[in-house]
Amino acid sequence: MNIEQNQIEKHNDSLLTAHQRRFAFLQEEWEHVDLESVIQKLVDFQIAIPSWALGTGGTRFGRFAIAGGEPRNIEEKIEDVGLLHALNGSSGAISLHIPWDIPQNAEELRQLASGYGLKFDAMNSNTFQDQAGSAHSYKFGSLQNVNKDVRKQAIEHNIEVIKHGIALGSDALTVWLADGSCFPGQLNFRRAFENTLESLQEIYSALPEDWKMFVEYKAFEPNFYSTTVGDWGQSLLYASKLGKKAYTLVDLGHHLPNANIEQIVALLLMEGKLGGFHFNDSKYGDDDLTAGSIKPYQLFLIFNDLVEGMDAKGMNHARDLGWMIDASHNVKDPLEDLLQSVEAIMIAYAQALLVDRKALSEAQQNNDVAKAQEILQNTFRSDLRALVAEARLRAGAALLPIGLYRYLNVRNTLVNQRGKTSATGL
Amino acid sequence: MNIEQNQIEKHNDSLLTAHQRRFAFLQEEWEHVDLESVIQKLVDFQIAIPSWALGTGGTRFGRFAIAGGEPRNIEEKIEDVGLLHALNGSSGAISLHIPWDIPQNAEELRQLASGYGLKFDAMNSNTFQDQAGSAHSYKFGSLQNVNKDVRKQAIEHNIEVIKHGIALGSDALTVWLADGSCFPGQLNFRRAFENTLESLQEIYSALPEDWKMFVEYKAFEPNFYSTTVGDWGQSLLYASKLGKKAYTLVDLGHHLPNANIEQIVALLLMEGKLGGFHFNDSKYGDDDLTAGSIKPYQLFLIFNDLVEGMDAKGMNHARDLGWMIDASHNVKDPLEDLLQSVEAIMIAYAQALLVDRKALSEAQQNNDVAKAQEILQNTFRSDLRALVAEARLRAGAALLPIGLYRYLNVRNTLVNQRGKTSATGL
Amino acid sequence: MNIEQNQIEKHNDSLLTAHQRRFAFLQEEWEHVDLESVIQKLVDFQIAIPSWALGTGGTRFGRFAIAGGEPRNIEEKIEDVGLLHALNGSSGAISLHIPWDIPQNAEELRQLASGYGLKFDAMNSNTFQDQAGSAHSYKFGSLQNVNKDVRKQAIEHNIEVIKHGIALGSDALTVWLADGSCFPGQLNFRRAFENTLESLQEIYSALPEDWKMFVEYKAFEPNFYSTTVGDWGQSLLYASKLGKKAYTLVDLGHHLPNANIEQIVALLLMEGKLGGFHFNDSKYGDDDLTAGSIKPYQLFLIFNDLVEGMDAKGMNHARDLGWMIDASHNVKDPLEDLLQSVEAIMIAYAQALLVDRKALSEAQQNNDVAKAQEILQNTFRSDLRALVAEARLRAGAALLPIGLYRYLNVRNTLVNQRGKTSATGL
Amino acid sequence: MNIEQNQIEKHNDSLLTAHQRRFAFLQEEWEHVDLESVIQKLVDFQIAIPSWALGTGGTRFGRFAIAGGEPRNIEEKIEDVGLLHALNGSSGAISLHIPWDIPQNAEELRQLASGYGLKFDAMNSNTFQDQAGSAHSYKFGSLQNVNKDVRKQAIEHNIEVIKHGIALGSDALTVWLADGSCFPGQLNFRRAFENTLESLQEIYSALPEDWKMFVEYKAFEPNFYSTTVGDWGQSLLYASKLGKKAYTLVDLGHHLPNANIEQIVALLLMEGKLGGFHFNDSKYGDDDLTAGSIKPYQLFLIFNDLVEGMDAKGMNHARDLGWMIDASHNVKDPLEDLLQSVEAIMIAYAQALLVDRKALSEAQQNNDVAKAQEILQNTFRSDLRALVAEARLRAGAALLPIGLYRYLNVRNTLVNQRGKTSATGL
Q: How confident is the model at residue C178 (pLDDT cuts 50, 70, 90)?
């Protein structure tokens, strides 16, 4: 289904008076700031939607279906992201996963996506599951495997993913490895690292000049004793040894308890090795919850360091890092959940853009800790939703995306069109 | 020093126009809500200041002094809390600690406190340190001690604290025990529990009819293997066995990583055994940071469950639980830090008061998880600072407490009056 | 397949000389102790094998098959446990799971099990997954559900499980609930507790007089914000309100990071409310690894408190608590993994039995912490494998269970008999 | 006091028969192994004692004295380490801390230490506390400080420490920084890193050619939001940028919950950047408990990777890394506690030396996870205390160090000689 521009406008009209009052209030509150440039940054900022997050997620204990209407193929996944992008104007990219989304006709897909205003973001390979008919099993790892044939199969799969990406106009490969071990003694850590590095080097050498490779790290799960790319330090080691096209990718849920993620982000930026993000939120592990649903202040602090660090390097917020969501939707409609994630990210970004950098820098220089806290809390406590909504309005999207989604009964329409379907994914 | 009413009014006048604009905006946004009753609840809500938090804190690695001006005695501590209360109108109580605050003349202290509009909140005993001249050491615990004489000394100390409290008009005793063990085998857990219970029973029997006993729990530190009142389950066991005057006290920093504190709070309320709070914030352990400085959403969620649960029981928000701060101030001016803590707590309380309970209950009844999240985030993302400021204004306090504190150079005045002093505490 | 007694004896014969040397050494080392009574306790101690752990486990990211030979039905599961019990003499019970193991003919199953020397341990219900054809979904919980019809369905399922258990000669029901929530606001914690309690009460009332109900708790997963029976404190609340047949069940992997499980165990024993265990090990969450593979000293410390506490109450080690394994086998042969778990548990139990209780009690009474540590480490550092092996020898089992398992090529035989099968389970 | 050789011999004589029986048993058990070479490695292995760990430790809540007899000066600290070394033959080095141990006459100290068979291990600087009379405060950090003058003072202090070390014959500087922040916004992470790096570079340039600089990391405490050398990844970044004399130092207690320390160790070794260790144990944070008292299996696993990794690089176990204890003694006699730590470390090292490397490597190559676990558990479960004791015996030390310590009433003697003293330290 498509959401028509006039449907959006009509819904917006009903909300416009209240919105204008709120936006006018914000303009007055922030009159000393160039709000127009902030709004333009919000308009430009796009967060890629992962193709595997368009269906219901689950755990090892099972998966509970929603009403249905989940996309049955890559075309319908693009359609779903098109719906999101029509609603919020901030979801202008899709991140594909091979083999769940093997494109049959890349050119047609590019045109389809383009019609929705979508680009193809980073491609994702999968060497954490065995595929029917594959010669070797990844039970004991892929790029780390003690068996050279298994490594070779995994390398070739990644190279194939790059080729799909080239055809689609993507320019990045995200390598997330489940490789690791479940028990002490299972692995020789050094050899596992060396095997993984050697494998990554082969994949890296197949990367086009203008591509990036994102080396994702994760503390634990599905291996429960060690992970071979287990933290940012290990990812940075790989990325440094690989070369200038290799970067670290930060998934917010892939850390040990209490980790200071914003510091990691700031240091990776400093090193020129931050590649991008998988946004989500979590309380216990890689819970893959809606971004900003558990620790919204942490999300803001991450963006605070991102904005400061990117500006210090003269980077383009929208283009120079990869912004992706990676979440599961076990108890919500996946599309509603994604709308909530994007909204939370946009709010955090807006808050970070409004931080008084000069005053903060002065407070830091004076070790005025209470003042520094006041400055950060001042923007965090400000209600910037009308600013984000204004950016949507200007982009031709909905003032209230989730409101319009429900008003239009999008899920019902999808169920009617597609049936009680269940999408590929976890 | 005193802050004069006209000093407050003059400062408020300079901020009044902006405040009125913001408050008017809020009134329009929340026109469907009885804001006046919300404001009255905010005016009534008082958070006790612990006498030991008026000076600079430290760690085992040392303590770094601030400029000075720290209170030298109980009278100056009351003066400091008086300053805070004059500024924010929400700090109308002081929580004393024995032996750091042994009152010489209770009647004079009551009059002094009363002059500042202050009450004496829960009394705190100390059996985690040895005092000069005491016969027995608490090295191996106090109420749990294998030596009956040590237990007796600790019991008598608590009874003495109750007596001081009676003289001052307090009506609660907070018992925080450092008791526990550092190594496996050091303690027999069962006997430690039994000794502690027996000791608490003796203290309990010395409690006046209208008093409460708060049994505080803590997961670890200063003992690093076990703590004898280590979690809410243990505290509830003690409180249940003691009787109807005994309650569990929740210090936000006293949990294992990732604990769901709001659920604990809801269940203790359900059981009629929640006594009160020690507010602070933390990232790693009992970090004793400013309330709301790390996880403000968690603070809101706690108040969300408090408001819902207290209303369900017909409890009085301001009076039926003990509200206290327990924080350290290692890198900030203690008084500024306390102002920030109180502000964060008041905001969280205001947010919780504005949650649309009926809509939330319906969303829960319909398992509409996305909607429930929207409802909570809607008030959390709202900027309610003007509401809290309005409550202050009506209470005769400052619109911008920390602004006025700095404008009046309070710390400088205190340094001039008191010298380069350092207060008792940790 | 069956392992014949003479196969065991023949294998034992080849190891006997070395075993006797080791056992003789132990007898000399522990000559001041009644080793015979220790050995008898080891012989008597039986650990139930869960029927769902006989096949390969997995995570939400997938499952990697082993060679096959996994049991296809309840009869083959009993056969597998029979193999384990023949090998180690300590796995004389099976814990069934409904609906994965619905018995068609209880009497035949009893005879089959009896032939292997097996009893039917606690029955396990499943309300964390939807079954084909069931009227209601557990997506939003079972016993906690806001919908009375869902709760009713879950209650009736549990009652059906009890009936199956009665027919088989079991005498306990383990209730593990995945009930909880993924997002703040999703649940009203109090109502979720009340619904769950009411549901448990209905199940409890269907319990035969001589049965126990085990209320299992878990901190997180598959719900990632709250769990409705989330910790021992909550489980104890339910068990206390239910009545004398209700107990708390401790799964070692169901805690927050750094929890002191041995203290929890000691206090539950003190309260007369410890029901039993699900043994496994973990580093990060509910990793379900082999018992003793990550933190063997913790396993010993738990048994140390169990032995002390049970003896203090005059309880029978083998009979008065439920001893079960609950582990997953993602990278090992399930039967080998279970043999390793049982071995680790038996060693920990043996170590605990040999702790010098009198000396430990004296050291505790004298606050001689270094001595207390020496006493515990003395038995932990002792190599008691020959003692456990001797108990196996006397029970007619194998000196080296995993050695014999491999020597006999048990897995190959099972693959040949059953094919490339995959068992029910997670 | 001194422990005379004949006192040791006499005590050993009383234990010799039992020891010989145990050692003979081990010889038979490990007849296929060159035990003599293992024993020689144990004899050669020396663990440095930190001068600040010879007195009673404490927490921010206080310190409880032991009977006394704590060293009053650097000479008595050397005397204490001499006692330990006489007892266990494995504590042949002392690690000094400036300004707690400023040597007045280096040559005399060298002779004194040499008389006890002691070397001067890594020197430790202190920029986490202010010293009386110093011009600048480290309240807001030292090498990271926004104020160049503060950084300069800290740099000069470190250079002074190097000079003291040169005079004493040390060849390493350990830099542990408490630098970090307590609140979001307090620091600019990038600038803090850059300031710290620049400061370290200045110190590094003052390092003699044959010295090493150990950059220690710590996750949290005394700063509770961020630490500027917060994890191994950050330490490695500094060490790599500094140059070939700079290394990472691993303190076992300085990690986030659940960290896989052995993997970190293996990777640092692989990178040629592992400098050494601070041994201790912990359950919650930097608890500074006796090595091996909480997680002895983890200690073994670390040594397992150390032995494998050092052998792979042809490194000398005893000389090529820095082995130090860093523990606090809050409830035990410090000297007894240190004896227990050294014993636990020696046992873990002995276990690691006996791991069947060839079989383990084969099991890894075959992904035989159960076998790999059996191999590691086989040495861990073996009782190797007699092997460690034999090494002591051959080194002229005590078979039972803590037994002899108590037999000789060492603490009483020290109290008599020194009085109720309290040593410098934390």
A: very high
Phi, psi of C226 (to 5 degrees): -140, 155
Please tell me the pTM assigned to this model: 0.98
Cis status of the peptide bond prior to A99, with omega within 30 of 0 = yes
Query: Who among B61, B128, B290 is closest to D129 (CB)?
Result: B61
The partner residue sitting opposite D186, judged by closest CB among A259, A266, A369, is: A369
**Rounded distance, CA C203 to CA A385, Å?**
48
| Separate counts of helices (H) and strands (E) for chain D | 15, 13
Q: Please report whether residue D426 resides in a domain.
A: no
User: So what's the pLDDT on residue C423?
Assistant: 85
In chain B, residues with a C-beta closer than 8 Å to the C-beta of A256 are: none
Across the interface, whether the CB atoms of A380 and B296 are under 8 A apart is answered: yes
> Which position has the token pair 């303690």?
B187
Kindly list the residues from chain A whose CB atom is less than 8 angstroms away from the CB atom of residue D183: 369, 372-373
Extract the tokens encoding A162. Answer: 């790059």
Burial of B421 from C-beta contacts in 10 A (0-12 / 13-18 / 19+): middle
pLDDT for res D425: 73
CB contact under 8 A, A130 and C62: yes
CATH number at residue B404: 3.20.20.150
Numbered residues of chain B with Cβ closer than 8 Å to any chain A Cβ: 21-22, 25, 28-29, 257-258, 260, 283-284, 290, 292-297, 331-333, 336-337, 340, 344, 347, 367, 369-370, 373-374, 377, 380-383, 385, 402
Domain-embedded: residue B220: yes
**Which positions ≥6 away from C129 have C-beta within 8 Å?**
A61, A62, C138
Adjacent-strand bridge partners of D276:
D249, D322
Residue B292, sorted as left (phi over 0), alpha (psi -120 to 50) or beta, turns out to be left
Q: Which of C61, C138, C284 is nearest residue A128 as measured by Cβ atoms?
A: C61
Residue B422 has pLDDT above 90, yes or no: no
- How many domains is chain C built from? 1
Radius of gyration of chain D (CA): 22
The torsion angles phi and psi of D168, rounded to 5 degrees, stand at -90, -10
- Residue C187 lies in domain: 5-418
Helix (H) or strand (E) holding B95: strand B93-95
Most D CBs within 10 A among A138, A146, A151, A190, hence the mutation to make, goes to A190
What is the distance between the alpha carbons of residues C118 and C46, in angstroms, rounded to a whole number? 10
Give me the torsion for CA of D237, D238, D243, D244, rounded to 10°: -70
Residue B379 covered by a domain: yes
B370, β-bridge pairs: none
Rounded Cα distance, C232 and C119, in Å? 28
Per-residue pLDDT band for C66 (boundaries 50, 70, 90) equals confident
At D88, the pLDDT band (50, 70, 90 cuts) reads very high
**Which of C295, C347, C374 has the CB atom closest to D297's CB atom?**
C295
Q: Which residues of chain A neighbour C255 with C-beta distances below 8 Å?
A: none
Q: Please report whether residue B425 resides in a domain.
A: no
DSSP assignment, residue A1?
-
Residues of C in contact with D257 (CB under 8 A): 257-258
CA distance B414 to B405: 12
The conformational region for residue A318 under phi > 0 = left, psi -120 to 50 = alpha, else beta, is: alpha
> How near does any CA of chain C get to the CA of A426, in Å?
6
Q: What is the pLDDT of residues A362-420, one digit of tens each?
A: 999 999 999 999 999 999 999 999 999 999 999 999 999 999 999 999 999 999 999 99
pLDDT number for residue C242: 98
* Chain B adjacent subunits, 3+ CB pairs under 8 A: A, C, D
Residue of D nearest to C21 (CA): D25
The three-class DSSP label of residue A384 is coil
Q: What is the pLDDT of residue D171?
A: 98
